[in-house]
Amino acid sequence: MMSKKKGILNAVFLITVFAITIYAIFHGQDLGELFGYIRNTDYRYWLVAVVCVVFFICSESVIIYYMMRSIRQKIKLMHCFLYSFVGFFFSCITPSATGGQPAQIYYMKKDKLSIPVSTLVLMIVTITYKLVLVVLGTLVVIIRPAQIMHYLEPVLGWCYLGLLLNVFCVAFMMFLVFHPTLAANMMDAIIRGLGKIHLMKRTEYYREKMANAMKQYQDVAGYFRTHKLVVTNVFLITVVQRLLLFFVTYLTCRSFGIDGTGMVTIVVLQGMISVAVDMLPLPGGMGISESLFLSIFAPICGTLTLPAMVVSRGLSYYTELILSAVMTTVAHFTIGRPRKQKREER
């Protein structure tokens, strides 16, 4: 788990970004009119959206349980649900979602699960999670559907940047997985070089940490080679998982009575927002996600763009954050706690 000092810094950063986002979005807006639009929505679509968010989070639970069982690890499905909520909570509040997996590993360790095994499983989850965005972004860039490109035109620079960063991230991780020896030699040379020019101290310590990390990537490579069907199934589940969250934006539009644009178009546009912001160092893509939504969906939503953005982000991000916070509290008080011994029967 993160240190107290790091936790305070993350909290300050999160609050600062949130305050700036709120000010930038609502400054000069008629809040009475805004909430008037929101009050007139069809709340039934919101309920379906919340269900989609819950299934989005729980999809990762299914993936973790499925992979753990494939390598014969004893694990409880209910605890997998808690791991997922913990991961999404810390991902929501840390830049570039960097806090999610360390927190999950912490709770898995409390459940007596091996750290190398947990790291392997979560690394594959990360690769497939980002690979879905790479596939979506690449298809849009190659096929260039006219309607999609028209709506994306004001923010194409952000989309290209996000796609490039995601491609680099996935490619780098796959390079580490399938060429661990070459990667290890390169990293070792970099560490030794930085040590020689006095830009890095404790080089032996970092070389040892790097060697341990490379061992984990070798384990992932072995898993890919021996569990190809499992990895394929994980990718397909992840596709459905991602689409569930993108579908929330479509449900939001329907709740406002916006039905002039097809479901596929809206889902793809929301997906491209995720492509653009996923690798940016902002908690939950806060600030930039709202800005991109307002730019992309203005021709679709018209005067309802701001209310639709508020509801869409409220359902897809803040609902996820609140639910995950509650379940993380549950995880804290349940995972790793010794059960009370039953009284012996007389």
TrEMBL record:
GO terms (BP aspect): lipid metabolic process; response to antibiotic
Enzyme class: transferase
Keyword check for Transmembrane: yes
Protein family per UniProt: Belongs to the LPG synthase family.
Cellular component terms per the entry's GO annotation: plasma membrane
Membrane topology qualifier: Multi-pass membrane protein
Signal peptide segment: none
GO MF annotation list: phosphatidylglycerol lysyltransferase activity
Organism: Roseburia amylophila
Chain's role: Catalyzes the transfer of a lysyl group from L-lysyl-tRNA(Lys) to membrane-bound phosphatidylglycerol (PG), which produces lysylphosphatidylglycerol (LPG), a major component of the bacterial membrane with a positive net charge. LPG synthesis contributes to bacterial virulence as it is involved in the resistance mechanism against cationic antimicrobial peptides (CAMP) produces by the host's immune system (defensins, cathelicidins) and by the competing microorganisms.
Coiled-coil boundaries: none
Protein known as: Phosphatidylglycerol lysyltransferase
NCBIfam families: flippase-like domain
Localization of this protein: Cell membrane
Reaction catalysed by this enzyme: L-lysyl-tRNA(Lys) + a 1,2-diacyl-sn-glycero-3-phospho-(1'-sn-glycerol) = a 1,2-diacyl-sn-glycero-3-phospho-1'-(3'-O-L-lysyl)-sn-glycerol + tRNA(Lys)
Keyword Plastid: no
Pfam family, one: LPG_synthase_TM
Keywords for the protein's UniProt record, in alphabetical order: Antibiotic resistance, Cell membrane, Lipid metabolism, Membrane, Transferase, Transmembrane, Transmembrane helix
TM spans (from-to): 7-26, 46-68, 80-100, 120-143, 155-176, 230-251, 263-280, 317-336
